Amino acid sequence: MGNPLSLFHPIIQNWFTEQIGVPTDVQKRSWPPIARGEHLLITAPTGSGKTLTAFLWAIDRLVTQQWARGHTRILYVSPLKALNNDILRNLLEPLTQIREYFQRAGVPFPEINVLTRSGDTTRSERERMLRHPPEILITTPESLNLLISSMRGRRILTQIECVILDEIHAVARTKRGTHLITAVDRLVLLAGEFQRIALSATVKPLEEVADFIGGYQIEEHGGHVKYKKRDVRIIRSEQSKDYEIRVHFPVKPRENLEETDFWPPLVKQLKEIIAKIALRFYSPTTAVSANRSLYSSIRMKNN
Prior knowledge:
This protein is α/β, with parallel strands linked by helices. 45% of the residues lie in helices and 15% in strands. Helix 1 crosses helix 4.
């Protein structure tokens, strides 16, 4: 396998090497088929760069003007409303840094707009989006269905080149998944065929989910209509993820601890750990809410 970074603009290659380093296993295996326009289901551990894998190729297409600006070209759909951290880390920050690299090199960089359409989007923001479609649109399954059901909304979805379906495991077996994939298929009637890239940390069975993502396309032969399954390549990361686990307990022997003695040192230690973590990487809902009773106790002690 050659260097997959060679598929990108030289300045983007330089940015990746200096800011990210070496491509991960999933990036090395995904970028060549993405460059060929294949549909993909990418499954890899959290933190392996799946989302950046999809976004970086889209950025390259816009920067090199392979995809003309002024239209929505990339549609990113996630079932999670709390998109801010992921989008900041995998799209907005890389986009800002790449722009700076181009400016330092004296190479023009096109204006690439990114907007979010969700239930929290204000009316004025929705109106502005319809007047000036972003090149990259971030949305949810529900908001996508609302856009497609609106005459004005459909107008900004006629030039889609790539649809990125994140966290596909969260919806694949649900009604939300049905609404999502039917909306994606309705997009074909507006924009024609486009590339489909689905991302997931854990999803099984892979073959069934790949069929779900690809769906069928209509082919006509001699006046007869035939439904042909879209081929979806499965990229499964071979990279293992190592975890470092440490067990901490208050210094005082456990058998001598009263219930009221347990909390102060625990809360103090949690505060120290949280203080060391950058705010944009800390999410209390995912960090500790798995055990709601413990979370409630800690919150009361912490406040």
